[in-house]
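A.,

Following up on our hallway conversation. Structure tokens first:
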């Protein structure tokens, strides 16, 4: 069972993450939000940035919430790819809090780079020094503010570090344009040793 304080902290980090993503997006552009949940980010972007947004979400209850908010949404399994979306049909494709839950993250990110001029990806950092220390001392899979659920009851199937992601982007031929970190619920554009100190990473990437 998740620690309530960890869950509250995680939700606050989500809100900070939404603010970071919103700041990266140019007003009046087209945005595709993958794994959009109940449409919170797209609602912010619509109301504050006048974007033309579309969400992709598999959970039907969340799809209904999107519709209630007036958010355009499609019910798709991201692991099946984005075949129905033309090349460069969006200025931005966003994947927030979802990368670590995908069965085939490489396929999805390659598709993001095909469909969008720029891709924004935010994920919790499993390389944080506290996570490593807990694992070293206890010998068990740690829980944390960013990973509040125990391994047997978690939607996260990949535990990703900042360094893992940077290597991954290079491997698929992508280019990191911007990188922002969240540490103790505060955004940091320049953070010393981010792989050890950041709770979350948010990257804007494109093709080379």
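Then the amino acids I'd put at each of the 208 positions:
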């Amino acid at each position: 069972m998740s620690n309530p304080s960890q869950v509250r902290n995680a939700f606050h980090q989500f809100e900070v993450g939404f603010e970071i993503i919103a700041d990266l997006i140019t007003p009046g552009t087209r945005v595709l939000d993958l794994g959009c949940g109940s449409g919170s980010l797209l609602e912010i972007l619509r109301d504050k940035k006048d974007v033309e947004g579309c969400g992709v979400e598999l959970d039907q209850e969340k799809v209904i919430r999107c519709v209630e908010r007036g958010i355009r949404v499609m019910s798709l399994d991201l692991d099946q790819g984005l075949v129905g979306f033309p090349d460069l049909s969006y200025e931005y494709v966003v994947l927030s809090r979802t990368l670590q839950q995908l069965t085939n993250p490489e396929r999805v990110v390659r598709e993001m780079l095909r469909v969008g001029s720029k891709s924004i990806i935010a994920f919790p950092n499993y390389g944080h020094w506290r996570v490593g220390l807990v694992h070293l001392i206890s010998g068990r899979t740690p829980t944390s503010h960013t990973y509040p659920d125990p391994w047997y009851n978690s939607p996260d199937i990949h535990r990703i570090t900042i360094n893992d992601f940077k290597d991954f982007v290079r491997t698929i031929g992508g280019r990191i344009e911007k990188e922002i970190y969240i540490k103790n619920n505060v955004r940091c554009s320049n953070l010393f040793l981010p792989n050890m100190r950041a709770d979350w990473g948010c990257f804007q990437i494109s093709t080379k």
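The helical segments are 4-24, 40-49, 60-68, 105-115, 129-138, 162-171, 194-197. Curious whether your intuition agrees with the design.

B.
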